Amino acid sequence: MCGIVGLFLKDQSLAPQLGNMLTDMLITMTDRGPDSAGIAVYGEESGGKTKVTLQSPNPKDDFASLAEELGQHLGAVVSQTDNDTHTVLDVPAGQFEAARAALAEIRPSVRIMSRGEMLEIYKEVGLPKDVAARFDISSLSGTHGIGHTRMATESAVTTMGAHPFNTGPDQCLVHNGSLSNHNSLRRKLRREGVVIQTENDTEVGAAYLTWKMMNGASLGEALESSLEDLDGFFTFVVGTKDGFGVVRDPIACKPAVMAETDQYVAFGSEYRALVNLPGIEDARVWEPEPATVYFWSHNDSPTTTEKAA
Amino acid sequence: MQTYDLEANGLRGLNATLQSQSTETNQTSWEVVNPKGSHAIAVGLDAPIEVTVKGSTGYYCAGMNQQATVKVEGSVGPGVAENMMSGQVIVDGDASQYAGATGHGGLLVIKGNASSRCGISMKGIDIVVHGNIGHMSAFMAQAGNLVVCGDAGDALGDSLYEARLFVRGSVKSLGADCVEKEMRPEHLEILKDLLDRAGADASPEEFKRYGSARQLYNFDVDNAAAY
């Protein structure tokens, strides 16, 4: 069992409250997943730079003068914003792979949580309320975000095993369920050059979508092909720079509720997670159909894009 | 009318209070406010009381009900009226998966749609869904009636025993050993009674009846290779 929440804002006047709303939703899902929690927020664009969110088990030593040292390696200016066990680096666009290589050398114990122009991911082991508090998630603003409360079944309870997973620029995924063909798929994707950091099944699901999109698929197309290529149980909620998608496997035993108003599209593993959202009483509330892809994008016309597989 | 504020007073208090009503209670009418999607609201009741839930609920609302009438003015999560023995459960909105699962008796009415596995392993309960139902509904259903005024999803009635299935709209596909059957006068009578009791505006003649072909009841030696 795990808990998933997601919020995609149509009305950007709610952006300053995104973190606050997601935190409330996340904490409500504590009893579906008390062992770890994580949140991905699409915030301000970093002005042509790539945001790289790092985690360290020893942030005091690892983050000290990190931006300066990395900047020297890259021959560029790097800035750094620390937040508890995480720090967000702004590196010049196109320098992410160079930064990843440099970090492996100068700070071998830091882990990369995410990279992208807008995406930041914060995740740790612990109760959702404690994880949200240590990163002050409720103060974050953004256009959309997804969160996860974990009750581990497929791999160890560690920071790296927590969701969301980021496997491509500005992409993230959370998962409730379990994939059964993740080992063979991981080997295949690694051969294709996709970086997969853990033995976790969900990271393979995320990497699969990244690989599809690297090869020209849209988020919606990637989600549709996941129904063919992934074996197991899944309710996925995914984020991209401007989009938000949901898909459930054909058996659909993992719960899902969605709500939509003029102001937002929201996802919860249970209706409980949605009860404090503004205007929920009059929202359209429904259970997403099995084997059906739903996605919304800030780039599309203002009407909702809902696409059946 | 007794009013219980679930948010202020908690779930255990609600169920303990409702479960302690005897069959001779004078407090026959209850209203539950602020359900906010909570799980296990009004479960294990065993008295002829009426409980109205003012909003949507989470998992297992009105489970194991006997005698009571539970009305939900909203939608319900998975497992509504699971293992109901008698009484009535009426949902104004939609129901999530396995509504009425394993129910032995009573009437479950869903005025919206029910999702997958509605009536799975039902054992005598009557279920009337005004809208549509999802895939794998009435899987291994043993007894009782499932009435669907809309459409049914994939694999309706897979491995069915003796439950009767009535569908007005389309059936996406039938499960193993489920077949369409002749609608005889006695079936129209059963259906008319259920539609009336469920407040469903539909004519029995518009429905088709589905039941077990009874081909899976006994071992067929031609299938030995499959084992």
UniProtKB/TrEMBL annotation, chain A:
Enzyme type, top EC level: transferase
Record-linked PROSITE patterns: GATASE_TYPE_2 (PS51278)
Classification via Pfam families: GATase_6 (PF13522)
EC number: 2.6.1.16
Keyword DNA-binding in annotation: no
Keywords, comma-separated and alphabetical: Aminotransferase, Glutamine amidotransferase, Transferase
Protein name: Glutamine--fructose-6-phosphate aminotransferase [isomerizing]
Membrane spanning residue stretches: none
GO molecular function: glutamine-fructose-6-phosphate transaminase (isomerizing) activity
Stored SUPFAM superfamilies: N-terminal nucleophile aminohydrolases (Ntn hydrolases)
Domain of life: Bacteria
Keyword Kinase: no
Location of the Glutamine amidotransferase type-2 domain: 2-299
InterPro entries named among the record's database cross-references: GATase_2_dom (IPR017932), Ntn_hydrolases_N (IPR029055)
Automatic annotation (TrEMBL), chain B:
Single annotated GO MF: oxidoreductase activity
Gene3D superfamilies: Glutamate synthase, alpha subunit, C-terminal domain (2.160.20.60)
Top-level taxon of the source organism: Bacteria
InterPro entries the record matches: Glu_synth_asu_C_sf, Glu_synth_lsu_3
CDD domains the record matches: GXGXG
Signal peptide location: none
Protein's UniProt name: Formylmethanofuran dehydrogenase subunit C
Record organism: Ruegeria denitrificans
